[in-house]
């Protein structure tokens, strides 16, 4: 029986080639988008699952002691390095403890006396790293590969790229951070590790054994620290055990720092430490939203597109299958049961869904390279690390869609009564028409929502890109390494260089340094940015009152500050010339200028009230070491400035290539994520509107065919073609009006929620709603008119000759 049903299904699908092609293509688009999201979810959930022993690894996290964010302390993914030895000796069941951190800057590597080149993803660790993280070794011994200082382990990708297919163990390479601060250091390659089967938070290229710095009471040493136990532990229990060790240790350190614990406890917090599973490091990041939260908007869009595809499939399948009413009647008369007919129609649906799945996979594979590049991923369908899981998910997905898309047409068509069907063309009835109208209306609710959404999203992004950021990023170079004073002075003398500044509050760094300041007997925790005398002029800060820091004023390097307009408003205005104190009123600084708020992190968040200081010693715990170098140059002399800078750099640092970016380009990168979202919404809008038009076309074809006899009778009785034309269009126009009425409040709420995520945003515009209404009405009229015109122009005799 199944074989017979399959033959009938193939025959019917082939007979209605055009409908079948439209059905399959529409469903393939929805499936392709949803499969991409499915692969992305699999990818993110697979992080750090490449070895079962990783379940025994935990990260040590410490509560931020030094600053509060909006009145609350934050957890760090780093902890005091002194805790390592304490955990080894005081915690039960500990197998190993290691530290590992990524180098903050590019480093220059020299292989076989070839020209130096930059390399990222250099991680520094100790000899216990491979006792905690069980990487597979292709060459070398994990027990001894990082035994000595200056040992280096590389990944298989790195080894293949720079050494070919040969074993690089024993090779000596040279690594340079800054030639005038740290000399070029030789490292011996002692091992090559295989790439894990799943992604990892450690994006390794090179792993080196770095020296452990000697601890000093007044120097803070915080490292990402990981501990491995002999068995899986309860996070709560081991955190409590660690806290018992940590509290007396931290109390003693606070005493040495001459910092009363009561000063911290008054905020409602106390020094704390905890252990979190290694798996949660990526799944639940500390200072940013987790991947699933970021994925929610895209997941919603892809689900809506798939829903539109399914609705479109149901309408198209029903519209073309109603013409098979006589077939159903005859099969029932000859003994076919309703159950067998349902199976027959479900088989046809399953065939189309399977074809749509294949086409969706092909389309996705074609676009995956572009999507991977845009989202910095490495997704693959055929090359998936767990192809079995992906295959199972796709089978379940197609089964669900087959049931969702096929169960209604199957039940509807199998319910035909042979007595009514064999009297004439059953398609003249109105059975099921209300549901099809509702489904098409739902399609247009979604399509109208997409149309309005893309206009508002585009408007917000355009507003952010055109809004004044409070500084001028054009004509500014950001050097990726600091320069000592003697070299900085030579850069200042290059023809075309206007300022050589230091500013650790630029787009790249944007640190969250805060300190307590007192004004009018009120203490506030404020963001603090380190600059040098020319630091604000270099980034093109805009002065509102007072002056910038100036070399002619010696006090500017010790007892003056500049504040932003946000802080001036917080203090009541007119702050130029007034004094602020810190360190329990022992230091008094004068406000010499007020600048416009600088948006170095885009416009998602309000620029915080900020103090800019050129003093080496300030209200924070950190010294202003002048290591974030920026160069402002005359734009017309750009080529000459870059040539002279490159020439100078080769003289002062032959082993470390010049590395820089343009601040203007860096600032534009802040909008990349929003631009990607806009393009995604634009794509989904186009697809949803296209599929909705197809759905409307099929509904119009179905409904017009149902009303053929009515049209013929009206024409025989003298109805004008124009009257019939408007009569048939009227119901669809009301359908679009209803879709707009439903879509408007829904999209208003959704977009308002999205806009609420921006500190600086546009007001909700009215134009997108009006445009959506006009466009949907016009598109409906044009789409429906194609079908109505054919019905109006047809000969009424053809419709009435069966009676």
UniProtKB/TrEMBL annotation:
Membrane-traversing stretches: 21-43, 291-314, 345-370, 390-416, 437-457, 683-704, 732-755, 767-786
UniProt keyword terms in alphabetical order: Cell membrane, Membrane, Transmembrane, Transmembrane helix
Record's bilayer topology term: Multi-pass membrane protein
GO CC term (a single one): plasma membrane
Pfam families with a match to the protein in the record: FtsX, MacB_PCD
GO molecular function: transmembrane transporter activity
Residue stretches making up the ABC3 transporter permease C-terminal domain: 300-418, 683-796
Location of the protein in the cell: Cell membrane
Source organism, top-level taxon: Bacteria
Record-annotated MacB-like periplasmic core domain positions: 20-244, 446-612
Coiled coil: none
Protein name: ABC transporter permease
